[in-house]
Write a structure and sequence with these properties.
single chain, alpha+beta, 2 domains, 4 helices, 23% strand, elongated
C-alpha cells in the first residue's frame, strides 16, 4: 500500500514537472519569468528584450529612475526609465528594450530616444569600481596623525600647568 502511494506520487510529480518544462519551452522562457514577476508583487518588472534574431524575457528592477537587469550574457544593464515606459501586460508591469540600439520601447511601439549610452556608462562604472588604489594618505593614517597631534598638545598643556602649580605651591606655604 505504501509503495503504491510513492509510485503514484512520483509519477504525478514527474508529469507535472515535465508539463511545466514543456510550457516554458513553448513560451520561450516566459512562463517562469512571468511567475517570478507575479510573485514579486510589483517589485520586479518583466522585461522583453528584442535582439536582431529573437526576443527573450528577463526580470529587472527600477532603482532611482533606472531599470537594472542582467542580459543573456549575465552582464548588468542599466537604462533610464520614465513612468510612461512601463505598461501592464497580463497583469504584470512590463518594459520592452531594443537591444540593437540600446533604447527602451514605450507602450506605443516607438523607441524612447535619449542621449544616455547604457553600455559606455556601465563600462565606466565598472572601471571606476575596479580601479586600483592610486596611493595617497588613507583615512586611517590621517586619523592617527590627528590623534597623535592632539595627544602631543594635551601633554604640552599638562606640562605647562604642572610647572605653574609647582611654582605656586611654595608661595602658598603649604610645603
Amino acid at each position: 500500500m505504501n509503495n503504491e502511494f510513492l509510485i503514484i506520487l512520483g509519477s504525478y510529480s514527474a508529469i507535472f514537472i515535465l508539463t511545466l518544462a514543456f510550457f516554458n519551452f513553448l513560451t520561450a522562457g516566459l512562463l517562469f519569468k512571468f511567475i517570478g514577476a507575479k510573485a514579486s508583487r510589483g517589485k520586479k518588472i518583466l522585461i522583453i528584450i528584442h535582439t536582431v534574431t529573437n526576443s527573450y524575457f528577463k526580470l529587472g528592477k527600477i532603482d532611482e529612475g533606472f531599470l537594472r537587469f542582467k542580459d543573456e550574457n549575465k552582464k548588468g544593464r542599466t537604462f533610464p526609465v520614465n513612468k510612461e515606459d512601463v505598461y501592464r501586460l497580463m497583469t504584470v508591469n512590463t518594459i520592452e528594450v531594443d537591444d540593437i540600439n540600446s533604447n527602451i520601447i514605450n507602450k506605443f511601439g516607438s523607441p524612447h530616444n535619449n542621449r544616455y549610452d547604457a553600455v559606455k556608462t556601465d563600462e565606466f562604472l565598472e572601471r571606476a569600481i575596479t580601479r586600483p588604489n592610486m596611493g595617497g594618505l588613507s583615512k586611517e593614517l590621517i586619523i592617527m596623525i590627528v590623534v597623535l597631534i592632539l595627544l602631543i598638545g594635551i601633554a604640552i598643556l599638562i606640562f605647562q600647568r604642572t610647572e605653574e602649580i609647582i611654582k605656586v605651591i611654595p608661595q602658598m606655604g603649604v610645603i
